[in-house]
Amino acid sequence: MLRDPHADHQAEAATAADRSLSRDRESSYVTLTLGDQLCGVPVLRIREVVTDARIVRVPLAPAQIAGNINLRGRIVTAIDTRYLLGLPPQEAGSRRVAAVAERGADLYALLIDQVLEVLTLPDADLEPLPINLSAEWRKHSSGVFRLPDRLLMLLDIESLLAMPALAA
Amino acid sequence: MDDLLRDFISETAESLAELDLALIRLERHPDDNQTLSLIFRLMHTIKGTCGFLGLPRLEKLAHAAETVLDGMRGGTLPVSSGGVGLILSAIDGIRHIVSTLERSGHEPEGADATLITALDSYAAGITGAPAPSSAPAAASVRMDRPPEPAAAELSAAATEVMDQTATSVRGQTIRVSVDVLESLMTVVSELVLTRNQFLQHLRTSEGSDLTGSVQRLSHLTSELQERVMKTRMQPIGNVWNILPRQIRDLAHDLGKRIDLVMRGADTELDRQVLELIKDPLTHMIRNSADHGIELPDVRVAAGKAPGGTIRLSARHEGGHVVIEIEDDGRGIDTARVLEKAIAQGLVTSARAATLSEEEVQRFIFAPGFSTASAVTAVSGRGVGMDVVRTNIEQIGGSIAVHSMLGRGSRFVIKIPLTLAIVSALIVGCAGERFAIPQASVVEVVRPGMQAGIAIENVGAQPVLRLREELLPLVRLATLLEIEAVDVGGERPTDTVAVLTVGGARLGLIVDGIFDTEEIVVKPVNTMLRHIAAFGGNTILEDGSVIMILDPTGIARHARVEAAAASDERAPDAGDEDDSLDMLLLRAGPGAPCALPLSLIARLESIPSDQIELSGETMMVQYRGKLMPLIAIEGVPSIAAGPRAVLVFEEDNRPVGMIVDAILDVVPTSLKIELRPDRPGFLGTAVIAGRATDVVDTSFWLARVASDWFNRKTSQENARNRLLVVDDSRFFRQLVAPTLSAAGYDVTVVESAEAALGMRDRGRSFDAIVSDLEMPGMDGLTLARTLREGGQWSTLPILALTSRDAGRQAREAGFTDIVRKFERDKLLESLSACLSETLAA
């Protein structure tokens, strides 16, 4: 293990490709924020990131569904990620950013606060979740990376896009 | 399965269909060498390819058939019907093998020894030997083919294929997977949206140098969209191809003579719809052949020609395709249908007495209903017409039957052009918009603002008093649990969309109606699929995503029991038959206008920059022809943006009428109050609860295309004089031009008394077309009076009616009954009556 855990993580990202062969295993993540929390999702699961899309709400839909988005002629269902993680709703007037992911034949847009950059991190650095996390975070997160300055929560897309239990 | 095999299978399927047609042609014209070479070539290709692909069983069979064909082509074998029958059997064999190949990728087990022996012995044995020696062999192979009939009879029994467009265009076509087309369609939709944003941008920024380029881009985009849509369309003839062969075989098996006449085979509709109507259509044609057409001796005894005719036609009519299947067979025995309906408990005998003929005839669509006394192998297995009806209704279509005992039956099927695109009513509710499929909207009413329509409460449930009916009401905002946005304290006026769900009706309270729009139905995401109120979602022209309401889901959700058991009314029989579809449109300020939908060939949206001026006349390039345009009074002839155009068509010559907007299609029973003071309008009618001006189509069209109504006179009608009796100026104005346009010499009177006066003065006519309901002497009395004696006692008399009075009218002496506005039917019926009079 040659990697200095305290190296600047941006430099790390820039040179990740060069060094990927010499490493055991590493994966790339899109980093994003939800409230004050830095989160990451596997880059291969995200098709694209859209900003300022108009969301039309869908009556009778489960609570975590924010509505539908017209993504260049395809209808994409927007997921209220904050709701799923137990965070308060976004302030009115703030920019809407969505990371588009695929599940089966459907496209879903995970609403987030902002998107940052792509980081490549060694798989071995992924640590289990602290046990004192809220039930929401434990349900939708699959591990944590300790970055030099802050923690990066790895979000579990499968669980975020899981079918909600049908209301009786 | 590899690609080569897959290509072979689909290509062979096409060849087999072509072979069927060609062989039937050959049977009728044994010396048609061109057809014979075509048959040989097709068979040869099949044989060659399957040898290459290693399909020995198929190759042996094709080879044996090819040998016989080679002999026929070389003149060493006669083209007898036995020979053709053998080749047809070989084609059946090939079809069987290919369908197994398609399912499993392997040839089925076994060999076709009997068939091959028969083919071989025909090829070898018959040369120089008398024909009958081979006949038993042919009969034994071909399951129950009767022994070789005389050649003359055969040609009469053979089917006729009109519109023969089978002249091959192979080589100019390539195979593209449907997925590719679908994705192309998606990309084009995106392109259209982007184009719209461009145009929007351009309108707000003045004098941009981009204007020209963007407009060109806009044109190209529209054109691209149109062409891509077209790739999904296929001529209905593709489905009909199999029918001539089926009818030929059926006629042989049943010992009948049947002529199949097909018209409009080039009418195009969506691939998906085509696939879905294929089986119902085939079933109905077989039904007509089996139950409809009588045996030759029965026909002769009934005074008809020994050969029966089945007419199959297709045409476009305002966003729909209308398919008609008509036979001149025995017709539906209403008494027997009724007897059976009572026996099966479909109707009580007390109620049965009050049913009209058409209502009784509709029982044939009831589940498990079959009147065929003997269950034949061909049809009549008791799963007939109800399945047909279900299949057709599933794709948003409808089916109706008109039948006359001893004269024949006519089935009219109306289906949407495409499933992907439906016409929808866009409604507003709590500040949001939703789409309702137009097919399930009966009418839109505003309670409180229209007399006789009010919302009342029964217990806690709101109901709508609509004329004579009480309808359960559902408030959309409550159903969807969305609360109205408070706009300055003023509540929007309630608007009620009356929906029909499986025969039952309910009213849906919304805040307002926006528009009707053609929408592309997209399935909802899995996560939302459990919500019964929605049937899909769509993207509107302005790019917003809206949900499509599912009337069935709404009815269920609101616990409205659809098709209440106590309701004895045959499902939607009454609604559909008593009314006329009126197209509601806006033209200029003031009240909306309307005209009968059936007069219109198509509704189009034409970009205004494509409209050119030629002298005083506006013209547009339309489907490869120049189409003159006229704007109705009050509509500006020059305006920006796409224009709504109603296209009328006659003899393939289109004429367009520009209106401001197309609002809706409303089934309505038309009662016109005359108002002759305003030229171009026939008067005022109450449609969907509003006073509506009824457009005098001929007035406007005559302005732009003076020869439109004077099209070339067809010779057979040239000397036929017609008397039209109708008290309504509106109908006289519609019927008379139609008939004179068809080449008849038309005289119009406005009462039965006036008609009788003409008879007494010694005027002579060839046929009479009369309204049934008239003040003074009505149509029935007129017919009875005429039949009693006098100069006109044997003339054909046609009844024009907007309601159902079949039985009475025929008893009174009418020759045929035609519903008002069924122009084609009227012309057809007239020419049928007149040719019968000539023959008699």
Task: Explain the overall architecture.
The complex is a heterodimer of chains A (168) and B (840). Chain A has 168 residues and is mainly beta. In chain A, 15% of the residues lie in helices and 40% in strands. Chain B is α+β, with helices and mostly antiparallel strands and 840 residues long. Chain B is 38% helix and 26% strand. In chain B, helix 1 runs antiparallel to helix 4, helix 2 packs antiparallel against helix 3 and helix 4 packs parallel to helix 6. Chain B is globular and about 85 Å long. The N and C termini of chain B lie far apart (62 Å). Classes of the chains: A mainly beta (168), B alpha+beta (840). At the A-B interface, strand 4, strand 5 and strand 7 of A face helix 8, strand 17 and strand 18 of B. Chain B: It holds the Pfam family CheW.
Quick synopsis:
In chain A, 15% of the residues lie in helices and 40% in strands. With 168 residues, chain A is mostly beta strands. In chain A, strand 9 and strand 10 form a beta hairpin.
List keywords for this structure.
heterodimer; A: 168 residues; mainly beta; OB fold (Dihydrolipoamide Acetyltransferase, E2P); 40% strand; disordered N terminus; B: 840 residues; alpha+beta; Four Helix Bundle (Hemerythrin (Met), subunit A); Helix Hairpins; Heat Shock Protein 90; 6 domains; six-stranded mixed sheet; 26 helices
